[in-house]
C-alpha cells in the first residue's frame, strides 16, 4: 500500500470542451432552437461526445452501439427471425436423443 507514487491523471482545462466540436450536441442545440428552447448546461456533456474519448475508451463504443444503436439491432433481430422462419430452421430438440422415449 502506498509504494508506487504514480502521477495523477492530467485533468484538461474546461475550455477544451466546446459544444461546437460535437456534431451530436450541435444537432441537439439546433433542434432545441427550432422549438425556441436552449440548454444552458449542454457544455457539461461535451466530454461524452468528443471523438478522442471513443479512441481512449472502446467500452463507450460498445455501450453506444447497444444503447443508442438500437435502431440497427432491432431490425437485424427481426430479419434473423424472418430468415430462419422462411428457411425452416428449428433449434428445438436438436435431434440428439431428446425425442420421445417410445423409440428406445
TrEMBL record:
State what this protein does. Answer: Accessory subunit of the mitochondrial membrane respiratory chain NADH dehydrogenase (Complex I), that is believed not to be involved in catalysis. Complex I functions in the transfer of electrons from NADH to the respiratory chain. The immediate electron acceptor for the enzyme is believed to be ubiquinone.
Q: Which residue ranges traverse the bilayer?
A: none
Its name, as the record gives it, is NADH dehydrogenase (Ubiquinone) 1 beta subcomplex 3
Q: Which cell locations does it reside in?
A: Mitochondrion inner membrane
Give the way it sits in the membrane. Single-pass membrane protein
Q: Which key words are in the record? A: Electron transport, Membrane, Mitochondrion, Mitochondrion inner membrane, Respiratory chain, Transmembrane, Transmembrane helix, Transport, Ubiquinone
User: Would you name any one GO CC term?
Assistant: mitochondrial inner membrane
Is the keyword Isomerase in the record? no
Keyword tRNA-binding found:
no
Regarding protein family, the annotation reads: Belongs to the complex I NDUFB3 subunit family.
> Which InterPro entries does the annotation name?
NDUFB3 (IPR012576)
Main subcellular localization, coarse class? Answer: mitochondrion
A GO BP entry is:
electron transport chain
